[in-house]
Please model this.
Amino acid sequence: MTTQSITSTIPPLTDLQVEREVTQFLYLEAEYLDETRYLDWYNTFLSSDLEYVVPTRTAARSSTTSATTGATPTAACWCE
Model:
């Protein structure tokens, strides 16, 4: 392997910085959500023009169905 081929596989420093910032952002977001710190998460990560939908799972069949489609609801939206 030549020196040229080794250095061409190393990403530029700016790419590593961006990757680290994105990774830290995702870890902090996951921490807030895992610890049910929803207000911290909401105030830190959401913008006013974002609609955030979280899918939900149910263990048993729900008795609530849509009047138009007959489908059981599968998502919830938490908004302020």
